[in-house]
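Tutorial handout. Part one gives the primary structure; part two gives the three-dimensional structure as tokens.
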Amino acid sequence: MKIRKVTIPDYKVFRNFEIDFTHEGQVLNLVVIAGENGSGKTTLLSSLIEEVGDVQKENPLVQIDWEGKESGRFHYYPVADLPLTHARMVLMRFIDQLIYQKDMKSSEALAYTQELLETIFQGFHLNVRLGGVETTREVFFLGSRGEHISIDDLSRGEQQMISKAFSLYLSDIHDSVILIDEPEASLHPSWQSRIALVFQKFADTYNNQIILSTHSPHIVSAVRREQVRVLLREDEEVRVISDFSGSYGWRIDKVLLEIMGAHYLRVPEVEEELDALNEMVDSDRYDCAEFRERMQRLEDILGYSDRDLMLLRLEVEQRCSEKGL
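Part two.
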């Protein structure tokens, strides 16, 4: 079960809205929906859940073009942190299946689960490993010094990776549509850059379609341009942008500016001061006390080696050289 296209004639922020989840006629297994706050990302995901859940609607507000609807299910992972009871349940159920259905010893089941954990999160540099199961049937982990760590004591990022990503691999989810709202929540930026690949592998391996919404430029930069859909709100309507020149491997600042529509990469006050200095250079007003004072103030804030300040000094030097100063 996968979605080819969604059409919303008139619902909440959407008017004559259409979003396509295919590329060159093929349904995408992973689609990343980006956009600023208020652009409708979460509303789109929740409208799909609402529409699919209410199969009795005679006049559906959301029209879905399906591929293979006869099989599979919908799964929704909201932006809020999943309860740790979910992670405990999934882990214990998986280990029990290895022991009681595949006749593994407890030690073999734990080793197999740990190997799977390391394979899935290769490159994440996790600081814990699966330790075992307490007599209370609580899974515990081992820290770098061999200390016992409960799921509750893992970092928020580690908890969410187990709840939202690792649990997918341990669950029997296939031929389904999985909606994930802001998977970057609680994750370090370096993990955000890698989590998209985890979802891509899961979608491809088990014939699922994962549609996720994100604010993270790290996630956008980690997928191919044909997988990105940016929602842009203009004049009380939302439109979709999908014809990018690129995205995969781009610098984060380039993603923020050219795809996600960020207006500033720094705090506005600093950006405005840099703009003022650039304007002074462009109009040849750099050889004055005001320019030197403003440059000094920014150097005190940003440091002498700041990239934009270095470029400003180089531009001034070039202009002085051309004038023989």
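Part three, for discussion. The mean pLDDT is 84. The chain has three domains: 2-73+173-258, 84-161, 268-322.
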